[in-house]
Amino acid sequence: MARRLSKRGWIVILSGLLVILMGSICAHLIFDRPEITFKEPLEYEYRQKLTVSDLVSEVKKGELINGEEEIDAAVLGAQQVTVKTKNHYGRKYSCDVSITVKDIQAPVITAPDRITLVRGQQVDLLAYASVTDDAGEATLELIEGYDPQKVGMQMIEYRAVDTSGNVSGCRTSVVVKENEDDQRDYFLTYSGHSGYRENGRTFIEGIPIINKTYGLPSGYGARGLTKDTSAAWQKMKEAAAADGITLKVLSAYRNYGHQEEVFNKKVAEEGEQQALLTSEKAGHSEHQAGIALDVNSFKESFAQTREYEWLNKNCYKYGFIIRYPQGKTDYTGYVFEPWHITYVGEQWAKVFYNDGNWICIEEYFMITSEYGD
Ligand SMILES: [Zn+2]
């Protein structure tokens, strides 16, 4: 006959089991290792100020002990870092983690904003700049130099490489003045072309720039067409005549006062909004500079004539451009004016002609044509 366990016996067994269970739970808690999540990747810049806590993104079931400890990042390459933690019951742990110290930072080039020289002056541009690197040596070289014969502003470019192959670049401008007395204010357009301002006038690549943004001093007057413009016009007129085309001048040079009358008359006839698209304010007309002519007809229908066809196809050969081409109002600020031609010289006229697909000055040089306040 089986002996039945007494009530007391049961209590002893259950108590024993409870002690074992509690004990193992406690032991589990006491010996529970903190879980460390490290940042990725464990790569650090050479000589970066670094502590153990910088390596760790999170510690679960405990905390860092040596978080404040500094790591020596002045040695390139891999190194072991000991990370010490303790769990909530104060039990301490340590583990090693591998980090890599790299030279990631590019060298720093110091160069002047602008280097001013005179025409023909040859200088060692490398002597104007210096380079520093956080991890030692870096070499400086010149990627793009300057042309000492080209008067105007030019961009030059330095490049530096450090021993780890990190590269940095730096662009700065060189202004080549005509001579020591040259007071022109040189600049570069967004298209990278060289221009200057002098006595209230603006030139880009030698072309006088006159539009809504770039004006002329009120007192400025060519007192007629410029010599080059006049000579080119005569030559073109004769060439046209030889092809059976008659070109005639409607309006050429207009002084400031005359232009003021023209503009005011337009405003009276068409209202200001329209006048701004069809006529230049005084001080903003190429006619005042003696480089523009209005020919044959002030009607847009002129564009349908044989004369315009000839002009459109041939004027660039004589250094003229259709200054306000069709579809370019957003750039020029003016409606299509088939009759208005501007002398810019043969070399540039060919560029703007663009094989019959006119590019306007504003578009090419990336400049604006807008009246200021
Ligand atoms: Zn005109």
Task: Summarize the topology.
Elements: H1 7-30, E1 35-38, E2 43-45, E3 50-51, E4 56-60, E5 63-64, E6 70-71, E7 77-86, E8 92-102, E9 108-110, E10 114-118, E11 130-132, E12 138-144, E13 152-162, E14 167-177, E15 185-188, E16 194-198, E17 201-204, E18 207-208, H2 227-242, E19 249-251, H3 256-270, H4 272-278, E20 292-295, H5 306-314, E21 320-322, H6 329-332, E22 340-343, H7 346-353, H8 361-365
Parallel strand pairs: 2-8, 10-14
Antiparallel strand pairs: 1-4, 3-6, 5-7, 7-8, 9-11, 12-13, 13-14, 15-16, 16-17, 17-18, 19-20, 20-22, 21-22
Helix pairs in contact: 3-4
The structure holds zinc ion (ZN).
Structure, explained:
It is a single chain. The protein is an alpha+beta fold. It folds into three domains: about 35-100, Sandwich (Immunoglobulin-like); about 110-180, Immunoglobulin-like (Sandwich); about 215-365, Muramoyl-pentapeptide Carboxypeptidase, domain 2 (2-Layer Sandwich), CATH 3.30.1380.10. Helices cover about 25% and strands about 30% of the residues. It has eight helices and 22 strands. The protein has helices spanning about 5-30, 225-240, 255-270, 270-280, 305-315, 330, 345-355, 360-365; strands at about 35-40, 45, 50, 55-60, 65, 70, 75-85, 90-100, 110, 115-120, 130, 140-145, 150-160, 165-175, 185-190, 195-200, 200-205, 205-210, 250, 290-295, 320, 340-345. The strands form seven sheets. A four-stranded mixed beta sheet has the order 2-8-7-5, with no helix packed on it. Strand 16 (about 195-200) and strand 17 form a beta hairpin. The longest helix is centred in the first third of the chain and has 24 residues, at about 5-30. The protein starts with 6 loop residues before the first helix and ends in an 8-residue tail after the last helix. The structure holds zinc ion.
